[in-house]
Amino acid sequence: MSGDEINPAAVAQAVEDVQGDDRWMSQIWRELFSPLHALNFGIGGDTTCNVLWRLQNGELDNIRPKVRFNWASTGPEREKSTAQGNSFVPVMHFIQIRTPNQYLIGPLQVTVVWVGTNNHEHSAEQVAGGILAIAQLLTSRLPKTKVVVLGLLARGDGPNPLREKNAAVNGFLRSWLPRLGQAQFLDVGAGFVHSDGTISTRDMFDFLHLTAAGYRAIAKPLSDLLLQILDETPEEKRASLV
């Protein structure tokens, strides 16, 4: 894209929340994130445009969590998926996390961003540009915050254009995010695609939606990274909750 060209994936746009917040009330969520006093602001169907709109329209106001997440999905969970992936990938859009002793005070330390797989109308470069715009907005509004951007997952039972697109988005992000200084890329998709190019139904039951095992595969390394960034080991975390 040229410097003067408007990126449609970096234009703020509102979205209707049709999913509610029960999706992440799971054992994995309770085990790894609830102890950190997480608040889930997830909205199914989010694109980078929707995340930007909410960031620009009050979602950053009057918060002092320790960690917050922006995770987005590809559409209603009840819809059937295809190899092209025209349905839901579970989401957490702003999750705010604090340990008890910092629940009322202290600056936001970490923001986790996971969005882009639902930008069906945008190119890989545009999607990555939209994610970069989110990270730039977060670092400008929250200068003391560390931004962790999760890589987009592979999808479909075999190689397909959307899988290639998501891989290209990840490639752009690996190159661009270090320029922000406060941003870090985390690949949570390693191991999902096997040597023959397939994805196991143990990880994605329909090659798009994550199973409990799939959720744990992405949540555990993310939890470990958050604790590392917060300079808090699992043992110290448990002790702080006693």
Characterize the structure shown.
It contains 6 helices and 6 strands, in the order H-E-H-E-E-E-H-E-H-E-H-H. The chain has helices at residues 27-32, 48-56, 124-141, 161-176, 212-229, 234-241, and strands at residues 39-41, 67-71, 94-97, 110-114, 146-150, 183-186. It is an alpha/beta fold and 242 residues long. Helix 3 packs parallel to helix 4 (161-176). The protein starts with 26 loop residues before the first helix and ends with a helix. It is globular, with a radius of gyration of 17 Å. It is found in: Cytoplasm. Keywords: Cytoplasm, Hydrolase, Lipid degradation, Lipid metabolism. It comes from Oncorhynchus kisutch (Coho salmon). Its main location: cytoplasm.
Relevant terms:
globular, 242 residues, lipid metabolism, single chain, six-stranded mixed β-sheet, 31% helix
Span between termini:
52 Å
Residue share in β-strands: 5-15%
Number of helices: 6
Helical proportion?
A: 25-40%
Shape: globular
The number of E-state strands comes to 6
- The secondary-structure element order is HEHEEEHEHEHH
**Which radius of gyration do the C-alpha atoms yield?**
17 Å
Give a short account of the largest sheet: 6 strands, mixed
User: Strand arrangement, largest sheet?
Assistant: 1-3-2-4-5-6
Structural class call reads alpha/beta
Mean pLDDT across every amino acid position: 76
Low-confidence stretches: 19-25, 73-106, 236-242
Pfam families: Lipase_GDSL_2 (PF13472)
Domain SGNH hydrolase-type esterase: 18-217
EC number: 3.1.1.47
Subcellular location: Cytoplasm
